[in-house]
Design goal:
single chain; mainly beta; six-stranded mixed β-sheet; about 5% helix
Length: about 675
């Protein structure tokens, strides 16, 4: 399933070191990958996780969903949980949020085919409602590696490739998968890929239906739960996609992708809290379309080489929320419906500077609209965001003495935000602006066995429309006076190759954010978002991989300390839902009779939250979750790689120990869930 066992050790470090030494790769060291020159590393056969190169930053990771042990109709949330060093949780609205290095979800950018979809009403991506069937690859970069990704990028970057990917198969292929779990939930998907000369056509759809998630050990509901399930956790969703890509002989390319998602689902209510959100989503939908093109790398009149790319994206969403009076979910006492439309244009260009330098620039413009429908009134909101960024990469040293390679990256950005429509509420100042800057360096020594890197950056984030003006069915008091957050980040680390089959990477980081937006509880028991002056986080990230006796092992660990300081009062507290320790170990092996097995152990350390009952900080205990899978594959024809030529059967178990793990106060995660499925491809 993952290629040769021995090659699994190269999941991040080895490919990174070799890429740094390659001059062709160094030209792509920062910013988004250029479509015409992205190269696969042939010595890495594992398609689960691979390295990406960033100058002055920790190596990014590339993940291929079709190579992972995932459910037949997997969501993006289930896919991203396979990424090391990325923290995911479910909030009290039922949304799936992501966090990196002490950041919160609004500080992590999510892009689909180069278009940021986190520039919306809430300025964050609920990854449980993003179409996932068409995603070919996921690129994850920790920290701020570039000034070119647009506004509001502080804590990391997740790129989803549907139409813009480096994959261009030479033969047609299809995939059909279906599975069922112990609570009678099922999922199915079908996809097809048709390469025709310079064109690549792809399409597919999936459907998932589940009556709910099982209760973990020691968890009980105030109202009797049917079949041992958490009340109001049922879900039904369908998504589909279509993508087309044209690759010209001269390097020019054209791509289009369209994907859509539609669902209805319940939201698990906080336990032991009579004023919890008793909500359901009778309708959630999201559609994303991206049209993009690039010239390819060509000589220019300026005497060097360069290319230009441009993308236009349309992000449409609709969310209907029904509020109920109690945990029986029989009587509706309110609703909040919203429609979103975000149009984003993004352009990138790069050009060589002599024989040792490259310059890249980007422009991003987004027009964000949200229409809100409440029982008492309707309201319209609008926000405009602009960003201009540029950066240069210099190859200072090439194979000189003890230094194999030395790269320097310098960049800057300027962002502007406006809120011309505020739903009738008092607007904040009409125009805001923020600047950003970054400098980083990467050095390779010891004949490519050791890579050293370091960088420092500064960036700002404008508050979203929802943070400024939303009442969330009277759960929040709006605060139009919120100020932008400002983050200064420092990181440094090393990647070391040990012997022939082991890699280790260690990265230290320190973030300091001024005017951090956090929520507080008011005397009337409602929440309010405020700027709480300074949030500081520092920590260490570790990645490692090796092979011991035919067992491929991969591990990651993040240890961090995050503190929130109110400079007016001098008080220090812990921000919500940021675990002090998180990590995991994954093992994969081949067994007799053609079987393959894998296991994953994930640790989430202690963290803090605001208890809605007491209004005080509460500590959530650490938890450890164990999962595993067993699979076997059969060939259905002599020509491997033909049309539907292989059959795979698998068994997967999530949360083997049935552990009660809390994502936030009074919200435990799912218990044990077993699944069987078949995949024809």
């Amino acid at each position: 399933m993952y290629g040769k066992t021995g090659s699994m050790i190269q999941w991040f470090g080895l490919g990174l070191l070799r890429a740094v030494l390659a001059t062709s790769a160094s030209a792509q060291a920062t910013g988004p990958a250029r479509q015409d020159t992205t190269k696969m590393l042939p010595e890495i056969e594992v398609r689960a996780v691979k390295p990406l190169l960033t100058v002055g930053g920790a190596s990014g990771l590339r993940l291929y969903p079709d190579s992972l042990p995932l459910p037949a109709a997997a969501t993006l949330e289930q896919t991203l949980r396979k990424l090391p060093l990325l923290h995911l949780r479910r909030n009290s609205r039922g949304e799936a949020e992501i966090s990196v290095r002490g950041s919160e979800s609004r500080q992590v950018a999510v892009l689909v085919d180069g278009i940021p979809i986190t520039l919306a009403w809430d300025a964050r991506a609920d990854i449980s409602s993003i179409p996932a069937t068409g995603i070919q690859e996921v690129r994850f970069i920790r920290g701020l590696s570039s000034m070119l990704y647009g506004p509001n990028v502080l804590g990391g970057i997740v790129e989803l490739g549907i139409g813009q990917t480096s994959s261009h198969p030479s033969t047609r292929s299809a995939e059909i998968a279906t599975g069922v779990d112990q609570v009678s939930g099922f999922g199915s998907k079908a996809r097809v890929s048709l390469p025709t000369g310079k064109w690549l056509l792809r399409a597919g759809a999936s459907h998932r239906d589940s009556p709910g998630v099982p209760l973990a050990r020691t968890i009980s509901e105030a109202v009797p739960a049917p079949d041992g399930l958490r009340i109001n956790t049922d879900t039904r969703n369908t998504d589909g996609f279509a993508a087309v890509r044209y690759q010209g002989d001269g390097g020019g390319w054209l791509a289009f992708s369209g994907s859509t998602f539609k669902a209805s689902r319940g939201i698990a209510a906080e336990l032991g809290y009579d004023e919890a959100r008793f909500w359901r989503y009778p309708h959630i939908s999201r559609s994303v379309a991206v049209l993009s093109a690039g010239t390819g790398d060509h000589p220019t009149p300026l005497g060097g080489r360069g290319d230009v790319e441009a993308s236009l994206g349309l992000d449409l969403g609709r969310t209907d929320i029904d509020a109920y009076t109690s945990r029986t979910y029989t009587d509706v006492n309110g609703f909040e419906n919203g429609k979103d439309r975000t149009v984003t244009f993004r352009a990138l260009g790069d050009h060589t500077i002599g024989s040792r330098g490259d310059f890249r620039a980007a422009f991003t413009a987004a027009d964000i609209r949200h229409d809100e429908f409440l029982p008492a009134a309707e309201a319209r909101y609008r926000q405009r965001l602009l960003s201009v960024g540029g950066e240069s990469v210099w190859r200072l040293v090439e194979n000189s003495g003890r230094i194999n390679s030395l790269r320097l990256s310098v960049g800057g950005a300027y962002d502007v935000g406006q809120t011309p429509e505020t739903g009738g509420r008092s607007p904040r100042q009409p125009t805001l602006s923020e600047w950003g800057a970054r400098v980083g360096a990467t050095m390779v020594v010891a004949d490519g066995r050791l890579l050293l890197h370091g960088g420092v950056s500064r960036r700002g984030r404008f508050p979203s429309l929802r943070e400024l003006y939303s009442g969330a069915l009277n759960q929040f008091t709006p605060n139009p006076e919120l100020k932008p957050e400002k983050l200064v980040a420092i990181e440094g680390g090393l990647t070391l190759r040990v012997g022939n089959n082991a890699e280790v990477q260690a990265v230290g980081f320190r973030h300091q954010m001024r005017d951090a937006v956090v929520r507080i509880i008011l005397p009337d028991r409602r929440f309010m978002r405020v700027n709480r002056n300074r949030l500081t986080s520092f920590g260490v990230e570790l990645l490692a991989s090796t092979v011991i006796g035919g067992v491929a092992l991969q591990g990651d660990l993040t240890v961090q300390s995050v503190k929130l300081t109110n400079t007016a009062s001098g008080g220090i507290s812990r921000p919500e839902n940021l675990p002090e320790t998180a990590g995991g170990i994954t093992a994969r092996m081949a067994l007799p009779l053609g079987l393959r097995a894998g296991t994953e152990l994930r640790l989430t350390g202690g963290q803090f939250c605001i208890d809605p009952v007491t209004g005080q900080d509460a500590e959530l205990s650490a938890s450890t979750i164990l999962g595993g899978d067993l699979s076997r594959e059969w060939s259905l024809s002599r020509s491997r790689g033909g049309w539907l030529s292989r059959l795979e059967a698998s068994v997967m178990v999530e949360n083997v120990g049935n552990t009660a793990a809390y994502d936030q106060c009074r919200l435990p995660g799912p218990g044990r869930l077993a699944r069987i499925q078949l995949r024809l491809f």
